[in-house]
């Protein structure tokens, strides 16, 4: 039997994570934050002093990772890295590391294994196109760069982190450009994805839309 999978792809700070968690808990499904895996790999590389263009060494490092996701925290080799992987430094470096094909291959199985009963909600860039092409529902979320930067700005402010809105907007656009233009698994909607512009929508509206599509699809 095939495991029910919902994929949520889209650019940085488009709200995928929030929506994926909400949809996942509404349906009692598991949740895969694939971006966290690329972030974890990148942080491990930075910590170990591995050069961010040493593809073979990075892939080897990825194969050795066994992150633990528990109660909203992320542990790597016993260390809680939940906050560290979200820093702007790690965000920027991650989009470089994630462009390397050997890194993507090394993390592929780890992602596939997340599909377990009763089902999975997976968020990222290539969930619908590469990792779970068989998914029963695929959603591609967009929002203008400014709206996304404002959302990120508020998230940071809520954590007491000061940020510059123009700089955040530039960083997001730079990251999106790299994710979209890379040769391997570029950011794009799957042919059979529903595209949803969330610029004018709140979280409840987006969750409802996805759950409606899910009941139509299953
Ligand atoms: O989703 P998040 O912003 O945490 O992802 C961080 C980075 O990881 C992205 O900018 C992208 O370069 C990479 N990524 C990816 N494929 C995924 C998820 C994330 O390349 N499925």
Brief digest:
The protein is an alpha/beta fold and 218 residues long. 50% of the residues lie in helices and 15% in strands.
General description of the model:
- With 218 residues, the protein is α/β, with parallel strands linked by helices.
- The strands form two sheets. It has a five-stranded parallel sheet with strand order 2-6-1-7-8. Strands 3-4-5 form a three-stranded antiparallel sheet, with no helix packed on it.
- The protein is built from nine helices and eight strands.
- The model has no long low-confidence stretch (mean pLDDT 95).
- It is globular and about 50 Å long.
- A hairpin with a 2-residue loop joins strand 3 (68-70) and strand 4.
- Helix 7 packs across helix 8 (165-181).
- It is 50% helix and 15% strand.
- The chain has helices spanning 16-27, 34-48, 55-63, 88-97, 101-112, 127-131, 145-158, 165-181, 203-217, and strands spanning 5-9, 30-33, 68-70, 73-76, 79-80, 120-124, 137-142, 194-197.
- The structure holds cytidine-5'-monophosphate (C5P).
- Cytidine-5'-monophosphate (C5P) is lined by residues 12, 34-35, 38-39, 94-95, 98, 124-127, 175, 179.
- Its EC number is 2.7.4.25.
- It is found in: Cytoplasm.
